[in-house]
Design a protein that fits this description.
32% of the residues lie in helices and 27% in strands. It is built from 22 helices and 27 strands.
């Protein structure tokens, strides 16, 4: 070290910190050489990379000498991950050790982690250095596990961790943004506010995605400060209330009514009121001055995701939105000061997740479900198994519904476990998730192609995949002569159908004519296929174009399909199933299944086939196939769920290293 550094003394009160620049490279290199053994030193090139890397933070501790000049006395190299920091290296110049410099360096890193929303800090310490480990324990770190031969043969390390949950509650990660914090503090004392200009310009906010922004700016009109706060919060991957889209939705009557319809049966239909009567309700972060409508206010806030508003509903057979007016914080503070303070305090203190995280997860996975669906792709027990498997792989899991469509940006991946269709929210959410950069299983193209039987038939036919003989029928084409030319019995399919719905068997040309007349009122095209009889259908589940499971789905009792929608008896609704090892499936069946699924993509598919006289006929390719506990998982057990979750995890890792869009 330079003699000047050795001669200087340092006081803890005069210490300051700065981010390293390339000008600090000589000091860092010299510090490495005097602090660590040769085998554990970072090279000059490695230090240069740390300084310039966007994923590393190099902190320089500086002291002020007698002449009030700053000089470096220590440094730390920190790796930045999505939810955690890792202290890779920490050293203090020999002449300034035992003076609290190391303590203050750790404290600075802890403060940085908390202010940027990180959840934990990890490091590796020499297992043979008991004084070092005791010092880290004093600084709040706990030993997690031993890493054999970490530094070299016979040189173990101990991984230590400090969880940051106890250094402040969830409120510290919430940023309440307002035009004038001074006015807000007078209206609502005891709550910390941030100005809009500070949020937009402060790099502490722009460099981290671990904040939840509550935007209480007075205006959300296009190009206003409030508009840009919400817009930039979304760009920074901050969770924000309200989003730009939420404001537009709430102030667009048609969209607002559509959102309101989502709670009509559960809540609105229970509210009494004669036709023509009106109901005016003020909502303040899900709370309302009228206690009898607390549940409704909570639901409305969840739907519209706008902090303060008054809604006027009118009974027209059902409750309709007559008017929604967004409120400013000053209006609310003047009229409902106590309720506003209570609402803000409760909002800030509320957990941001449905359950507490007991460990750190690398990625967030949303699983889309519908609890009211009769034939959901997965039963509750299977969903629980998916959740546990995902957590083992490295996901934090949250089950979401269509009401959470605005929250898609909070996740890294979307796994759909609700019956998909082009005309409902499942496709819209998959498309939105994909455009936001999420990994989606199954992706919107798979939903579009699998749900349309016309596309499937043409695609399979073009690729030479064996399938039942088929005809595309239009109303104009179906002359009496053409209808009589078709073989009987015949299966008719609506272009978009699932779970045996929209599929009909006709036994005569007269029945065919009558059924087509009704079907053409719903669609321009109908698919007709020859009827192939079998006791069961093969279902081959594939992931990444690799067979995952194999089942035989037997026909429902006294019915020609797996599901009998006309049956009122639950035991006759569906046929039994039999799960087999993939190795037990005839090779020609597997080959046909892989060939058919590869035409759609590399997602999670279920290919249905009939095997007749040693020949495999592809009936259809399904996205989002069934996985139920005790059926599809009968042989693989938990491994089935883990394979699916691991595939999603691998896709995220792959996406990080490739360009999604090419221009």
């Amino acid at each position: 070290m330079s003699p000047r550094y050795e001669a200087e003394t340092v006081s803890s009160n005069s210490l300051s910190f700065s981010e390293a620049s390339l000008a600090d490279l000589p000091f860092l290199h010299q510090l490495e050489q005097t602090s660590f053994s040769e085998a554990r030193q970072s090279s000059r090139n490695s230090l240069r990379n740390s300084i310039t890397s966007p994923n590393q933070l190099v902190v320089i501790a500086q002291a002020r000498g007698k002449k009030k000049c700053l000089f470096p006395v220590g440094a730390a190299i920190v790796f930045e991950y999505k939810r955690s920091l890792r202290i890779y290296s920490l050293a203090v110049e020999r002449a300034h050790r035992m003076r609290g410099v190391g303590d203050l360096l750790i404290k600075h890193i802890l403060d940085f982690a908390v202010s940027h929303g990180y959840e934990r800090i990890t490091l590796e310490a020499d297992a043979g250095n008991s004084r070092l480990m005791e010092w880290y324990r004093k600084m709040g770190f706990e030993a997690q596990r031993t890493l054999p031969d970490y530094y070299g043969p016979g040189e173990p390390a101990v991984r230590m961790v400090q969880m940051l949950a106890n250094r402040g509650n969830t409120a510290e990660h919430i940023v309440i943004v307002i035009d004038d914090p001074g006015v807000a503090k007078r209206c609502v004392p005891g709550i910390h506010f941030c100005s809009a200009t500070e949020y937009l310009s402060d790099t502490n906010y722009s460099n981290s995605n671990r904040f939840h922004v509550l935007n209480l700016c007075g205006s959300h009109k296009t190009h206003s400060l409030g508009y840009y706060v919400s817009l930039l919060a979304s760009a920074r991957n901050h969770r924000v209330t309200p989003t730009v889209m939420a404001v537009k939705d709430a102030t667009t009557p048609v969209v607002a009514q559509s959102l309101l319809d989502e709670i009509r049966e559960a809540v609105l239909d229970k509210i009494p009121g004669a036709n023509g009567s009106t109901l005016e309700l003020t909502c303040i972060l899900g709370k309302t001055p009228d206690s009898q409508y607390e549940d409704l206010a909570k639901k409305l806030f969840s739907l519209f995701s706008v902090p303060f508003f008054t809604i006027v509903l009118e009974k027209q057979g059902v409750w309709k939105v007559k008017k929604i007016k967004l409120l400013k914080i000053k209006q609310v503070a003047d009229k409902y000061p106590v309720l506003l303070n209570c609402a803000l305090t409760g909002y800030c203190g509320r957990k941001r997740y449905n359950r507490q995280r007991l460990r750190n997860f690398k990625y967030d996975l949303a699983i889309l479900v519908n609890g009211n669906e009769k034939t959901a792709p997965s039963c509750p027990l299977a969903l629980e198994k998916f959740q546990k498997a995902a957590e083992r792989v490295g996901f934090f899991v949250e089950f979401i519904t269509k009401a959470d469509h605005r929250r898609i940006c909070e996740f890294d991946a979307l796994f759909i476990r609700e019956t998909t269709a082009m005309e409902n929210h499942t496709y819209e959410m998959a498309r939105h998730a994909y455009t936001e950069g999420l990994v989606v299983v199954d992706d919107p193209w798979s939903i579009m192609h699998c749900s349309n039987k016309v596309y499937l038939q043409e695609r399979l036919n073009d690729a030479g995949i064996c399938q039942p003989r088929g005809w595309l029928l239009t109303q104009k084409l179906c002359t009496p002569c053409h209808i009589r030319s078709l073989p009987i019995p015949l299966v008719l399919k609506l272009p978009e159908s699932s779970f045996s719905q929209g599929v009909f068997l006709v036994h005569s040309h007269e029945e065919l004519q009558a059924k087509l007349s009704r079907m053409f009122t719903k669609t321009e095209l109908v698919i007709a296929q020859e009827f192939l009889t079998s006791d069961y259908d093969w279902r081959i589940g594939l992931l990444d174009n690799t067979p995952l499971f194999a089942c035989k789905y037997y026909m429902a009792n006294n019915h020609w399909q797996i599901y009998n929608w006309q049956s009122s008896m639950s035991e006759e609704f569906s046929g039994r199933s039999e799960t087999l090892s993939v190795k037990q499936v005839p090779p020609h069946v597997l080959k046909a299944a892989v060939g058919a699924s590869s035409l759609i993509g590399n997602g999670f598919y279920g290919v249905d086939l009939k095997e007749i006289n040693g020949k495999a006929y592809v009936i259809e390719v399904n996205d989002n196939p069934n996985v139920d506990a005790g059926i599809e998982d009968e042989l693989l057990g938990d491994e089935l769920y883990e394979r699916i979750m691991q595939s999603i995890y691998n896709r995220i890792e792959t996406e990080r290293h490739q360009i999604r869009y090419l221009y």
